[in-house]
Write a structure and sequence with these properties.
By secondary structure, the protein is α/β, with parallel strands linked by helices. It is built from ten helices and ten strands. The protein has an eight-stranded mixed β-sheet with strand order 1-4-5-6-7-8-9-10. The chain has a two-stranded antiparallel ribbon with strand order 2-3.
Length: about 290
């Protein structure tokens, strides 16, 4: 098992075997992201990938879950992904689930048949960064895709039977677009109806374009209280198009951890936020406890 550069994975993949099948992110232009500043995107040599799988299979043959990295490994050609998934199935007889990061464009560029084949080979969950439901926010952060395209991508993956976990970022619109960012995110999440929704809170990373904009006075990060208001607005603007979307704010960047099913627990989630707003700073995670 060999890794190059920084390798990240979703919190829910903490117990998974992490397989690096690509390096970096094929887009790598989002202004807030400092994950791959010095790692240009490339496909890892397939021989190296297969060697790592074989080694992992000998060392931990009972592995039930695998996560394929890096930033949007679903961009790899379907044929290469099939080769990797077949090798994982051979190496790990008890394999139940494979997860992967993807952009909506990666999903849209795969055919329905290709997605179905990947699902049959145990690609069970895709993690997708929505970031914001506001097209203006998406334009400003150079996401390179619209909210409607992301809705289309999530729905296409769901039709193939693949679960989708969507991630959005509180604070990404700054003070200026805070209300629009939050309201549009709630609306777009409702259109997607993902299996999971995780809200993270923006932390400005030195060296990123957004950090420079903040230093230059062109971007103002909402206060902790403003982040709570955004969180409330996101939840408030979800609607009955959601079925059983599991909602979490348990990431270390967040000021207030929440958990529930949006269609069932919306009122109680809003009440918890209202209580935290009434209590003030004492109800929030201390600043020095927050982390990416």
């Amino acid at each position: 098992m060999r890794y190059y550069g920084r390798v990240i994975r979703p919190p829910s993949e903490a117990d998974s075997y992490i397989l690096q099948a690509a390096y970096g992110c094929s887009h790598n232009r989002c202004t807030f992201c400092g994950t791959y500043p010095d790692k240009p995107f490339s496909m890892r040599p397939i021989e190296d990938v297969l060697e790592d799988i074989a080694l992992a299979g000998r060392r931990m043959p009972d592995t039930p879950r695998v996560f394929i990295a890096d930033g949007n490994a679903l961009v790899l050609p379907a044929e290469r992904l099939v080769t990797i998934l077949d090798a994982l199935g051979d190496a790990f007889p008890q394999l139940r689930r494979v997860g992967i990061y993807a952009s909506a464009r990666d999903i849209l560029e795969k055919s329905d048949e290709e997605l179905s084949i990947l699902k049959e080979k145990k690609l069970q969950i895709i993690y997708l960064g929505l970031e914001s439901g506001s097209d203006e926010v998406l334009r400003r952060i150079d996401k390179g895709i619209t909210s409607s395209e992301m809705v289309e991508g999530v729905c296409k993956a769901k039709r193939a039977g693949i679960r989708v976990s969507v991630i959005a970022l509180l604070g990404l619109g700054g003070v200026e677009l805070s209300a629009q960012h939050a309201a549009d995110t709630g609306r777009v999440v409702s259109e997607m109806d993902p299996h999971y929704l995780s809200m993270l809170t923006l932390m400005l990373v030195p060296g990123t374009p957004l950090h420079k904009q903040a230093n230059d006075g062109d971007f103002r990060l909402p206060s902790p209280e403003g982040m709570l208001t955004e969180l409330r607005t996101v939840i408030e603007n979800t609607d009955d198009r959601l079925s059983r979307c599991v909602f979490r704010t348990n990431h270390a960047s967040n000021y207030l951890p929440l958990a529930g099913v949006l269609s069932r627990d919306k009122a109680s989630l809003l009440a918890t936020i209202d209580e935290a707003q009434a209590r003030g700073p004492d109800a929030l995670r201390p600043e020095n406890w927050r982390a990416l």
